[in-house]
């Protein structure tokens, strides 16, 4: 007692008079009684309790983060409690600890929460969705963590049977499915592009009677993160190797809830169906508006980024730092999305997209950089690689601003701008012609079908040049090298009315001589009417010269008629 009294004066306990050894292990002082003031300028005095309630760490609620690759403490309850307490305290952040690996044995349900993992890892040690986010128009913040599955729950273990099977006749309109069995079911009639196993489609109806076909509902797969009709701000989040999609974003019919979301510096690699799936199938218009996505999407089995049919994606900013598809898994359907291999088919796929900007570094082992489906328009595409391809399906109103080439290897493509169409088939280009039957086929209801104009403003250099190259190394005499054919239609049938042909006339001993022939129609046959070569002009038939002067015009070389004689003026 005497020793204790020496540490007390009239002002209370003396400074530095009580050390750790003086405090009993059972002693405690309420944190509400401990004052705390930051040393920063203009710091405000508060209590330790108030300060602690602004910081919520998983370990404070019992989490261990001790996953060692095969086992560890179940941290699900601790993390759930931490999230709930942080949200109740002015929606504060819940924090993980750097380097910790937290074992999760059931889906983490978030609704307007804020997580900063501080570079921790969540191990999804169960056969379900890792994190599911709901919340309507409320933002959920996800920062600085990695989400990966434990052994047995990875993409390499994926099969179509992981999703719930829906029979023909029981489909729900606006839900998204993957065809599992075709049977006699006509999936095309309810929204699919093809009756093919692995085809992803958004149902437009329930289907008919059960004709043996079934499909797996996309929302029932074991995605890494499932965002359901809510806004998310995600940054520095890594979602890898999940049985389904890395991040699956689905709208709902209750309003514009997914719009204004931001997914920046995210990595979605090695997932089964897609790295990122924007499922706008049930949305009201603009539900996916102003969505910003920037990140890496590598080695996903199906797609890097995918937005299915009927998804109204408006003004999305998709910036791909890197996207490639070289992941092959034996459990993937052999003909998934009409491909005979399991590699990623498209880096980015959109349907019904408007005003999207897509750019970045895109590199694929197989497939195409971009596919735009029906009703996709005003998409600006920028890429740092110029050797990637784009497949535009049956898009209309597409506007491209890119140095990359348009590639349509699987199907004819029609791009519509207002009332005009550009059709690209396997070996033909049609302008206002959806079924071109020649390499270039132009159809127009106007009198003037085509105009060729040179704007080069230089003397003797602004002529229009037409070049016809005949790819034959062993041309023979009188071979036709280039020809123009003029066709028309009579009351009964189409007919050829004239032809202009260029012939090689002497190819022996390295000579390169030619002639031009003009063919006209007569008695339903094509007749060589005029020939021009180095020897002069040859005319088949008579020459009719009218309005010839009857007196010498005084111009050298000009013809004139003197009675029945035809003369040439000497000037």
Q: What topology does this entry show?
A:
Layout: H1 2-5, E1 8-9, E2 12-13, E3 35-36, E4 46-47, H2 48-52, E5 56-57, H3 76-88, E6 93-95, E7 101-104, E8 108-111, E9 114-124, E10 131-134, E11 139-149, E12 165-167, E13 176-181, E14 200-202, E15 214-217, E16 225-228, E17 231-240, E18 245-250, E19 262-269, E20 274-279, E21 292-298, E22 303-306, E23 313-314, E24 317-324, E25 346-350, E26 353-354, E27 357-360, E28 368-372, E29 380-383, E30 389-391, E31 405-406, E32 413-417, E33 420-424, E34 429-431, E35 440-442, E36 479-489, E37 494-506, E38 513-522, E39 525-533, E40 536-539, E41 559-562, E42 565-568
Parallel strand pairs: 5-6, 6-9, 7-9, 8-10, 9-11, 10-16, 11-17, 16-18, 17-19, 18-20, 19-21, 20-22, 21-24, 22-25, 23-26, 24-27, 25-28, 27-29, 28-30, 30-31, 34-35
Antiparallel strand pairs: 1-2, 3-4, 12-15, 13-14, 13-15, 32-33, 33-34, 36-37, 37-38, 38-39, 39-40, 41-42
Descriptive notes:
The protein is mainly β. Among the domains are: 127-155 and 221-417; 172-215, no CATH class; 418-456, no CATH class; 479-483 and 497-539, no CATH class; 547-571, no CATH class. It contains three helices and 42 strands. Strands 5, 6, 7, 9, 11, 17, 19, 21, 24, 27 and 29 form an eleven-stranded parallel sheet that branches. A ten-stranded parallel sheet has the order 8-10-16-18-20-22-25-28-30-31. Strands 36-37-38-39-40 form a five-stranded antiparallel sheet, with no helix packed on it. Strand 36 (479-489) and strand 37 form a beta hairpin. The longest helix is centred in the first third of the chain and has 13 residues, at 76-88. The radius of gyration is 38 Å and the shape is elongated. Residues 325-346, 360-369 and 382-411 have low confidence and may be disordered.
